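Holo model, adenosine-5'-diphosphate. Inputs:
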Amino acid sequence: MTTNGSQQNGPVGDVPEDANEHCPGTQSERAGKAEACAGCPNQQICATAPKGPDPDLVDIAERMQTVKHKILVLSGKGGVGKSTFASQLAFALAGKDKQVGLLDIDICGPSIPKMLGLEGQEIHQSNLGWSPVYVEDNLGVMSIGFMLPDPDEAVIWRGPRKNGLIKQFLKDVYWGELDYLIVDAPPGTSDEHISIAQYLKATSVDGAIVVTTPQDVSIIDVRKEINFCQKVGIPVLGVVENMSGLLQPLSSLKFKSITINGDEEDVTAAVLQEIQRSSNLLQSVYTYSEVFYASSGGAEKMAKDMKVPFLGRVPLDPGLSRAAEEGRSCFSDGSCKLSASYLNSIIGKIQCTVEASADSSSKV
Ligand code: ADP
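Output:
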């Protein structure tokens, strides 16, 4: 993303990285001819290239006409649970009988096939376009992960090739009628973000959900992500604080006695028996540990400072990690009860916002 001041005037992605200050944008009638273009390395190309909107944007807009709501899931850093959130959001909405598509454009690290239990699946082509891979009749998934012959192979692509694939995903995948398209974007504010923002703006996008962990190293990057959304005109639906403390039922804890020599003994049974004898705490009490130190107040404070909605917290939950590893919904059985209840509350808020504004002009 360029920091060029003219970015606010021209369409997103319309100003090359190496452009001069006050570049009018490559699509402007003044491209290559404006005063600011003098001496720019792109001047000649800009002056002679055909102008006007990218014809692919028209195809994308047409393809997306059958999609009611489009939600982008973003994060400033990798490893904060963005794909986990995107996949559980898709499972949750599908569980509410919505028709859902999940599009994974995290091209260099596609984890959605695994998180949806679809490893080893392939994409098929029909006369209508590329067919998503279906978890259920109402939950389809598209990812570059389905196209890689070897999951251990690194995808080393430059910007234009990545952008080409994103464009194809939006233009050529036949989703049919969808209530929701969830887009799992790569972390950071790279080329792919600029592309997806530009392409989704050609249709209409409800907004972005930004996932972060509580500590400053993650929050600092999230501020950039929110600024990015504001610059490109994508509404921020809200911020989710993931891995927000470790919450465990007292009954699931293990206890060890450790001597100064380092000898260990498992005393779980004895300790739990003792707790049970003195009260009924095993049924109702959870232990909470603040794993990541939120030195500047965490995501809620940051959201308040940046005037964007705070959607809630999701604790670290071994059950959720296991559901993601096994490609399962965390709502279908009781194995991640805790995180499921937090996720449900957040997803309810997202649905309220998006569905309430369906007919309003808040989409871009
Ligand atoms: P990202 O998409 O931000 O790179 P992932 O969604 O791949 O991050 O999550 C990284 C790892 O953390 C995964 O193994 C995932 O299962 C785990 N994880 C994410 N959120 C939680 C959580 N709330 N509790 C337990 N494990 C989690």
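Residues 1-12 have pLDDT under 50 and may be disordered. The chain has two domains: 1-52, 57-247+292-363.
Archived with the compound record.
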